[in-house]
Design a protein that fits this description.
Beta-Lactamase, alpha+beta, five-stranded antiparallel sheet, 3 domains, Alpha-Beta Plaits, rod-shaped
């Protein structure tokens, strides 16, 4: 089965998580620091501007009353040493500009005061010609005069300040500090990102590396290779997973070995049982077609072979001879020596008959002391000569006595001969006519042979 496609790997997720966390944290902290620095700088400028405005308002009272611009200029010049003061402007009680002095800008803003406060107001941020200022507005108290008031004093409002002082504190230096701080923070964030990448690479080697080994080992197990082992390099959950995986592969390997052993044993047993079955089948087949006592073909196998021999003789134009043998007075052997001796004698008879015939001939036992010999492939011109040769060897094989323990009996036999196709045209008829000829041999005095003749059938029919 094909493994699923990994769209976003674990390593990528770890990288994104680590780098994202570092970036978000660094940016958040940097933003807070910059905002804090901005607020601190604004508060510092506001406080300084308020102090300068109040100080100037205290000293500018007489000068505003007499409209003495020179005195105001001398007072303002003392503020030139303060780099934070950008400009100063003095307004009368009617909020009209009386005096203005710029220190750090091209032009002093001519805007009149929007309000007429009775106390110092600070914190107003103004933008002028691309510059930022924190402005402080302080009232100038009415000077105290002995005697009757003058006409100008009479023309001023009876209550309220004599004028106002506007002091502008430059925010450019603070802004430059903020920019420098921002660059520093950016460098710190970049360094943190590099550190985060190094950490993720270390995590890859420490965490993802063993997991990749586990993945490769799992694929090997999927392909049937159970002897894989993954080295455990840690004592954490990954190490426990590796140990569990190795234990699993070990058990699988042992199970496969046991299964292979069982399979091998089963195959051996199946092979052994198959051989035994084949031997038993062959033995059963042999027992079904062979005589149990002598091992010779029985009547069933004789009929089968005789049909094949006759069919071959029809194709080749040959003759087939059937010799039917019955041993004379065999019953006396069983009666005098016993059936065991008779069975032993029959086995010896079968052996002598097999040795007396040709290799192509068939010797069969029909039952009792009756045997049949089939001589196939006889040339019609030489058939009688070949039959007589077999008859001679068979009869000679019984001239010697048999040895049954301390007994040495002798046997003679009566033989009847029939020929295909001269006497019979089918296997069953061939055996039947040979049997008829055998009885004719017994009637002739036993220990002889007779070829079947037509008058034998006539005599048999007459007896029936």
């Amino acid at each position: 089965m094909k493994p699923p496609l990994v769209r976003l790997g674990l390593l990528t997720k770890l990288n994104l998580l680590a780098i994202g966390s570092v970036v978000v944290t660094a940016v958040g902290i940097a933003t807070l620091l910059i905002l804090q620095q901005h607020n601190d700088e604004h508060a510092r400028l506001a406080n300084a501007g308020s102090a300068v405005a109040e100080m100037f308002a205290e000293r500018a009272g007489p000068a505003i009353d007499t409209q003495d611009s020179g005195a105001l200029a001398q007072l303002a010049q003392a503020l030139a040493v303060d780099r934070d003061v950008a400009y100063i402007a003095v307004l009368d009680a009617r909020k009209q500009l009386v005096f203005a002095q710029a220190f750090d800008v091209v032009q002093v803003p001519t805007r009149n005061a929007d309000t007429a406060p009775s106390r110092t107001i600070t914190g107003t941020v103004r933008g002028i010609d691309g510059h930022r200022f924190v402005e402080a507005l302080a009232p100038i108290a009415q000077p105290s005069v002995a005697g009757s008031p003058s006409a100008d004093q009479a023309s001023r409002p009876s209550a309220g300040p004599a004028g106002y002082v506007r002091v502008g504190m430059s925010f450019d230096r603070g802004w430059a500090k903020l920019k420098s701080s921002t660059l520093t923070v950016a460098a710190v964030v970049g360094a943190l990102i590099v550190i985060a990448i190094e950490i993720t690479l270390w995590l890859q080697r420490a965490l993802v590396g063993p997991m990749h080994q586990l993945i490769r080992a799992a694929r090997a197990v999927g392909y049937g290779k159970f002897d894989v082992q993954v080295p455990a390099t840690s004592q954490d959950e990954v190490g426990l997973l590796t140990h569990t995986f190795n234990h699993m592969t070990q058990k699988l390997s042992e199970s496969r070995s046991q299964g292979e052993s069982y399979q091998h044993t089963l195959e051996e047993k199946v092979t052994q049982r198959t051989k035994e079955l084949e031997l038993a089948t062959a033995q059963a087949y042999k027992l079904a077609q062979h005589d149990i006592l002598t091992g010779l073909p029985n009547r069933s196998l004789l009929n089968q072979r005789l049909r094949q021999i006759v069919a071959q003789a029809i194709r080749d134009g040959h003759q087939v001879a059937c010799l039917f043998l019955d041993f004379d007075h065999f019953k006396r052997i069983n009666d005098t020596l016993g059936h065991d001796a008779g069975d032993q004698l029959l086995r010896s008879v079968a052996q002598r008959l097999t040795n007396a015939v040709r290799e192509s001939d068939t010797v069969a036992r029909l039952g009792g002391d009756e045997f049949v010999i089939v001589l196939p492939g006889l040339d019609p011109e030489k058939a009688t000569f070949e039959i007589m040769g077999v008859l001679g060897r068979v009869r000679e094989s019984f001239l010697a006595a048999f040895r049954l323990g301390d007994q040495t009996p002798t046997l003679t036999c009566s033989i009847g001969v029939s020929l295909y196709p001269l006497d019979a045209g089918d296997p069953d008829g061939l055996i039947k006519l040979a049997d008829t000829a055998m009885y004719a041999a017994k009637e002739a005095g036993r220990n002889s042979y007779r070829f079947f003749t037509a008058d034998m059938n006539a005599r048999v029919q007459a007896r029936l």
